[in-house]
Amino acid sequence: MADAIDDELDLGSVVPPQRRTSKLGIVGAGAVGSTMAYAALMRGAARTVALLDVNKQKVEAEVLDLSHGIQFMSMAEVVGSDDVSVLADCDIVVFTAGAKQRPGQSRLDLAEATISLVRNVLPGIVEVAPNATYVMVTNPVDVVTYAALQISGLPPQQLFGSGTVLDSSRLRYLIARHTGVAVQNVHAYVAGEHGDSELPLWSSASIGSVPLLEWDGIGENGPLTREVRDAMAREVVESAYRIIEGKGATNYAIALAGSRIIEAVLKDEKRILPVSSLLTDYLGISDVCLSVPTIVGSRGVAERLAVPMSSDELTGLRRSAEAVRSVARRFGF
Q1: What is the DSSP secondary structure assignment for residue 213, as one 8-state letter?
Q2: What does the CA dihedral 59, 152, 128, 301 come to, rounded to 10 degrees?
Q3: Fewer CB within 10 Å, N- or C-terminus of the chain?
Q4: 10 Å Cβ neighbour count for 219?
Q5: Is 250 annotated as a binding residue?
Q6: What is the DSSP pairing of strand 199-200 with strand 206-207?
Q7: Which residues are marked as active site?
């Protein structure tokens, strides 16, 4: 009887399906790229991590160093090369390569050199990984993301920037430190440009389930007054400059923020993150890449959430959009 069933189902000819594995590509093996590879490996975000860098000796050294620690992480493979083919068939590609920001230099000052690099490198990557989701991390991320869309021809949902994911983390850290609550219980977004014109969305922020603007001063540091909030907003903008002046680059926090975006895509989490994407009639704002709370999943960016904003916040967001748009136009985009 069993033989008859086996014959009927032809079990011997059934080929087990291949296990789907994830491949993360990182362009640039500098401070940000190598740290992002490390963070992604530590979090078990991808089965294969592939590094691309023009400096062959550097990228091979980073791969070897990371590979020696695989025993202490989730099982993964690390590869790297100066040949773009190393990124073939990636599920997600994170672009970290770009001009290095010098002390006192604004992110927008970096635009020309970084856009030139994107123009030279990105088309070849898209050719070997046409179905990947692309995340631009290099600064100035909003302008570079807009330029990358024009250069690559990819659909707007498939390519986006890391935006203000890190800035929002910085803001939540400052709020948590002031109020004495866990940062995980602080919910607040920074929107707009990842740079000097960005703005915290105070009117939609909350601590636990308490609206932030109604926080009654629990904790030893007192209430979140207008002056306190303004100081926090300045600290969010200026902290990157302080870090760059002190150690030459920001790498740990942006790598963790990037790994969070990577997981949202590879695991199709549909997580709400303030990434920078091409806006079309978002609260009247169009034709610019800007950060707003957005649903992120396996297809890249989906809906942008029309979060409540005060009139001042909406004015600030539109001002930020114009600042980014004017720089993009300066470079022919």
Answers
A1: G
A2: 90
A3: N
A4: 16
A5: yes
A6: unpaired
A7: 194
Q: What is the pLDDT of residues 106-142, one digit of tens each?
A: 656 678 889 999 999 999 999 999 999 999 999 899 9
CA 240, CA 24: separation in Å to the nearest integer?
Answer: 26
Give the residue carrying structure tokens 């040949």.
83
33 pLDDT band, cuts 50/70/90, is very high
State how far the Cα of 253 lies from the Cα of 256, in Å rounded to an integer: 5
Q: Return the beta strands (E) in 150-293 as ranges.
A: 159-161, 186-187, 190-191, 199-200, 206-207, 210-211, 271-273, 276-279, 288-291
User: Considering only the top CATH level, what class is 165-330?
Assistant: alpha beta
Residue pair 94/25 in contact by the 8 Å Cβ criterion: yes
The architecture of the domain spanning 23-161 is 3-Layer(aba) Sandwich (3.40)
228 annotated as ligand-binding: no
- 12-26, pLDDT tens digit by residue? 444 444 445 799 999
Structure tokens at 208: 């636990």
User: Is 101 annotated as contributing to ligand binding?
Assistant: yes
> Where exactly are the structural domains of the chain?
23-161, 165-330
**Residue 29 annotated as lining a ligand binding site:** yes
Burial class of 64 by CB neighbour count within 10 A (0 to 12, 13 to 18, 19+):
exposed
1 CB neighbour count, 10 Å cutoff: 5
